[in-house]
Every structure is written in structure tokens, then in C-alpha cells.
Amino acid sequence: MTMRIWVVAFIASLSFRWAETGPLPQPAPFVPASANLIVYVDWSALLASSVLAGVETSLIDSDSWAAIEELAELSGMDPLKDLWSVVYFTTPAEDGGSGWGIAGYGAFDPERLIENAEARGRVSRARYRETTLYTLPALGPSLGNLTGEQVVAFPDSTTVLFGAPAQVRAMLDAGSGFAPAASDSGALAGALEEFTAAESLWTVGAGDGGLASRAGGAGAIGLSNVPPLVSFSLSARFGMKVKVRARAETLDSETANRLAEVVRGIAAMGALAQPVDESLQEVLESLEVETIDERVEFSFEIDQDTVREYLRAREGEDRKPRARER
Predict the structure, then answer these.
(1) Could you give the number of structural domains in the chain?
(2) Strand locations in 44-130, DSSP E?
(3) pTM listed for this prediction
(4) Which residues neighbour 179 within 8 Å (Cβ) at sequence distance 6 or greater?
(5) What is the DSSP string of 176-217?
(6) 211-223 pLDDT, tens per residue?
(7) How many beta carbons lie within 10 A of that of residue 182, not counting itself?
(8) Same domain, yes or no, for 88 and 149?
(9) In terms of CB atoms within 10 Å, which of 57, 103, 116, 180 comes out highest?
């Protein structure tokens, strides 16, 4: 699945309640304690959101559709209908890189998926935690030409796990209670207490999620000045307006104050931008920044129509350089 789908999901759909706690929604309990980044999406809620009205066609017409088609062919399901929710996570690797895993919750047909996979090549089988692990043949270019072994497992009739063998085994350990899940221990356990089944999308990560390293030449807008973070979390509530809230845990109160000043500085520069962007002004006027000890919380609001138009425009721009003959 291309990053565009994750970006759209990240911006577009959810409710947010900092105060309520409770069990995490499926399939989030399968994420192992070693995770340093988690993104959860209630896919059915995302597609039903009025924010995406008119955007879904744009998304399907883009290059993302090639990945969706290949995934549908391989799995025998329609990812836009049969997938209810999904969680993606990364874990640190010994070589300095990262591993990843995906857990999906929905209506799956394991026999059909394996049959389709076997049509592409040999599928080997192994048992772990009373669950069959299926090692898949090489996946196509639309799915990233993934290197190394990729395994799929179905711990129950509504859950599918996908990733490298070690990641799938770690998910089975967490989901079955043989090892701690991310919500039980690890770097993200505290931040995960903020989320419940009420949220249709959230993300939480250790550190800054790579923001500083990706800032590059963005120093002009202050991103390169972001101080070190211990963890961050983000979600959004949809009503008449989209209300986005974020929380960052820093090293100490001094660092928290520095981060708050960076956010305020970016807002001040945005307010002076010419020509005036009405949607940006709407965000800036509603922006609230608060520091509580080593924690920084900020929030802003924006009309659903504005988000929808932004997504439409962005999808259109993304398609231009990759236009292909039909």
C-alpha cells in the first residue's frame, strides 16, 4: 500500500477523547511492546466520513489504485469494503533500520487468499502459537517489491497479520498474551492509555517520528528547530469542524517551553504570509498551545469542507508527474 493512502488516512478521519481510557480497538492489541511507531485507522469510518466525499474517486484514479488492485487480487477481498480497521507499526532493528508489521481486522477468506498466493508461487507453511504461518511468494511492484520473506497468518476469523516472520510471531505473542503488547509495556505504553475504541484514527510514536531528520531545508519554517521528544501522539475529532489535537512528551519543562515557542513561531510566520490563505488563517486563529511540566499540547480547528478540498487538490497534484496513458 502506498504512502498516499496512509497520509490521507492520517489527515482525514477520526474522533478524539483525551480523557477516556479503555481497551484498545482491534487489531491494535496485536502490536508488540517493541513498537516505536503505531498508526491505527478505522478504515470503515474513514471511507464513510463526509470529509472524504469526492476524494475516494480521486484516490482510486491515482497510482494507489494499482496497489489496491494487486492486494485485492492476492487476498480475494475488496480492501475498500472488507477491511474494517488496520494498524501499522515499526520496530527498531539491530542494523539501525526498522522492521514493520500490519494487522488487519475485517471479513477475510483465508483459503481463497492462500489459493491465490499459490497461483503465484510456492507457499510454505509452519505452525506457531496454534496458528499457521504462510510464507508468500514475492509480491509485485505495486506492493513495493518487498524483499525477504513475507508471512501472513490468521489467528482468528476476523484478523490477518502480515510482515516478516519475526514480526508476525511477535504479533501472535502479543495478541495471545505470551509476551507484552505495546499497551502493556514498552516506550509507547503510557501514550496508548489516551486512546480507546472511540477514536477512528490515531498515531503514537517514540521520539519525534523522524520529523527533525526529514526537515531538511525546512529551517525557514522552524521544523529544524524542533527539540528532542520522548514521544508524541495525535488524533482528531470530527463534528461540524475537524478538531486536531497533538501531545508531545519532552525531556523536561525547559524543552517543553522551547517546543511551544517553535509552534507559536511557525504560527506567527504563517499569519504574515502573503497572499492571505483563508484556510490557514482559520487554523491559526483557533490554535491553542499549552505546556504542562514536560508535556506540550496543542490543538486547532478547521472546516470539514476545507479538509476535503485540500485532499482533492493534493491528489490532483500528486497525479500530474505520473500521468500515464490509459
Answers:
(1) 2
(2) 83-92, 98-106, 124-128
(3) 0.76
(4) 32, 33, 170, 173
(5) HTSS-BTTTSSTTHHHHTT--TT-SEEEEEETTTTHHHHHTT
(6) 444 444 334 344 5
(7) 27
(8) yes
(9) 103
